[in-house]
Q: What sequence folds into this?
């Protein structure tokens, strides 16, 4: 996203559009959390003291941050991402890697996916986003920063080596101030200089990071986009000190388990529409039954009747019960999207 916090404030306060704006507090100990592009023209940057920001631009507008709002907008952005792919690796509230080798909409060109996402964010959220498209994470990240704001830059595989050669060494991942200074002392000022270095030379001077720098210089980055695992189920179960032998005792304990499950669902804001009942008998045999609903199960008034319905499907008269469990999960849906031979 482009100047994420500041852009949200400008969206919500259109009277400040075109004016230098900072998210932060103007007090002497205040710090700039984000700066609009207008403020950046004066040299104002995030993490700068508010006092310095005011000196650089006496007319700068300070707005206190609203983290809950920013988090909610971030969720909305990720919901848009998930319309296209589930392989999403968040870097921050406003930045993420997406693997669209397979995509839910069967769009053939990766560039078209980026355009569609940018347009959808602009139309639904009133914000601009910049996107980078390439065949690995290193190049996609650099491309995303290349034409901000509201940019889209594509690095084709056959153009990658030439593009990398043109980069200042500071743009390479893993090159901070200390490493950058060392590289300059070694005569490495650009990607072209890095491409001339042997793997042995880089390992000797930079240790294991030498492998990384060598690969990046030659357009190689084998790191996969690592999707955050989404919770697939939520549940609770109780093992009893004394085995349950009467149907009434089972109903009472089932009620308590359903209450606890409902509390956990509310706490975690979980949504799933399949309820599973698990019963373990005193001989350690186990039975499970499940039922699916047409909408998410979140209330006790819905969960308990379904749990009782499942209970009736299990013969509990043969053995005393030592454990009762309930869980709610997502429906099991396997999608087989068209394979995308990644094109740009």
A:
């Amino acid at each position: 996203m482009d100047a994420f916090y500041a852009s949200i404030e400008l969206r919500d306060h259109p009277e400040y559009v075109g004016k230098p704006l900072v998210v932060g507090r103007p007090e002497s100990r205040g710090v700039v959390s984000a700066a609009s592009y207008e403020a950046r023209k004066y040299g104002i940057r995030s993490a700068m003291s508010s006092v310095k920001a005011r000196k650089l631009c006496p007319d700068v507008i300070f707005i206190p941050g609203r983290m809950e709002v920013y988090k909610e907008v971030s969720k909305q952005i990720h919901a848009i991402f998930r319309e296209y792919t589930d392989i999403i690796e968040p870097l921050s509230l406003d930045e993420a890697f997406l693997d669209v080798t397979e995509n839910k909409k069967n769009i053939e060109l990766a560039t078209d996916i980026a355009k569609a996402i940018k347009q959808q964010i602009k139309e639904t959220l009133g914000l601009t986003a910049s996107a980078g498209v390439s065949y690995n994470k290193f190049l996609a990240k650099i491309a995303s920063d290349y034409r901000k704001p509201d940019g889209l830059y594509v690095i084709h595989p056959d153009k990658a080596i030439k593009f990398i050669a043109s980069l200042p060494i500071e743009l390479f991942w893993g090159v901070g101030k200390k490493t950058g200074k060392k590289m300059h002392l070694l005569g490495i000022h650009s990607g072209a200089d890095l491409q001339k270095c042997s793997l042995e030379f880089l390992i000797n001077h930079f240790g294991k990071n030498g492998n990384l720098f060598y690969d990046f210089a030659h357009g190689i980055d084998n790191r996969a986009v690592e999707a955050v695992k989404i919770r697939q189920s939520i549940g609770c179960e109780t093992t009893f000190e004394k085995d349950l032998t009467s149907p009434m005792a089972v109903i009472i304990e089932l009620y308590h388990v359903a209450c606890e499950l409902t509390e956990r669902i509310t706490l975690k804001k979980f949504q799933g529409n399949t309820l599973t009942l698990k019963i373990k008998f005193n001989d350690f045999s186990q039975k499970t039954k499940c039922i699916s609903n047409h909408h998410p199960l979140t209330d006790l008034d819905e969960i308990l009747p379904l749990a009782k319905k499942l209970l009736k499907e299990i013969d509990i008269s043969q053995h005393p019960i030592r454990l009762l469990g309930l869980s709610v999960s997502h429906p099991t849906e396997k999608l087989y999207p068209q394979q995308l031979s990644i094109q740009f």
Remarks:
- The chain is about 40% helix and 20% strand.
- The longest strand covers residues 233-244.
- The chain has a mean pLDDT of 92.
